[in-house]
Specification:
about 250 residues, alpha/beta, Rossmann fold, 9-stranded mixed sheet, two-stranded antiparallel ribbon
Length: about 250
């Protein structure tokens, strides 16, 4: 048994996703370790909490920190902190006059910490995820798997250590960055920064009936994507252990 509480800070909020669902699922997973004590926020305010934290977890979309908050995040990671970033954390979106989706470069300092910025995804569907580092404890004994989710195409800012990856080429309309040549793209990766590390898992889209408003009034059927698969929960469980128990 741990001799002290393990401190986690969760930021879960933004646009176009069912954050209530994601927040609840993440809190249930965190509660599996009785030593973990979690604070929950809907933005990047009060980051002084990170001084006491073993792990930061973010599940966001179109939610960006201020310049001062970005510096606090960098200092947390460079000082030895661990950050589990999920799905849309690296996503900032703008809708153009002709109906396309742009991903502006106004937050490159933030994206540089994460190591990537979301640029586009093809229409949601099934794709193959392959194990890129089978000897690493985070993905050891995780076989290749098919998943229905958003396949993130990204701009990369730093050397990354891919743990899981997939291959894609084709069109990602209606995104401005629509055409992508054949390439491997990371799905789950480590990004070292100073004495700390960011662990990023791009899977995990979820959307409820009302989460596209005002672009669309409702979604006919809730979208749960990777949350429907036991392997996704296993990856998050291992990621939490990596953050608080130093699983390397």
């Amino acid at each position: 048994m741990n001799n002290k509480a393990l401190q986690v800070h969760l930021v879960c909020a933004g646009k176009y996703h069912d954050f209530d669902f994601a927040r609840l699922e993440l809190l249930k997973l965190l509660s599996e370790n009785p030593a973990i004590r979690t604070s929950v926020a809907s933005d990047y305010a009060n980051l002084e909490r990170l001084a006491d934290c073993d792990l930061l977890i973010t599940y966001t979309c179109d939610l960006m920190p201020s310049a001062a908050q970005t510096q606090s995040l960098r200092e947390f990671v460079e000082g030895g902190g661990r950050w589990l970033a999920l799905h849309g954390t690296n996503s900032v979106l703008e809708f153009t006059a002709d109906g396309r989706i742009a991903t502006p470069g106004d937050h490159e300092e933030f994206m540089a910490i994460l190591g990537s910025q979301f640029k586009a995804h093809p229409p949601m569907g099934s794709f193959r995820v392959e194990n890129a580092c089978p000897d690493h404890p985070l993905v050891r004994d995780i076989p290749s798997f098919d998943v229905v989710d958003e396949l993130y195409m990204m701009k990369l800012f730093a050397p990354l250590r891919p743990l899981l990856h997939t291959r894609f080429s084709g069109n990602c309309a209606p995104f401005v960055d629509a055409e992508w040549p054949d390439q491997m793209t990371p799905v789950f990766y480590l990004r070292d920064l100073g004495d700390g590390t960011v662990l990023y898992l791009t899977l995990g889209h979820c959307r409820g009936h009302f989460d596209t408003s005002p672009a669309r009034p409702t979604v006919p059927h809730p979208e749960r994507c990777a949350w429907n698969y036991p392997v996704y929960y296993e990856l998050i469980r291992r990621s939490i252990r990596w953050g608080v128990d130093s699983l390397n």
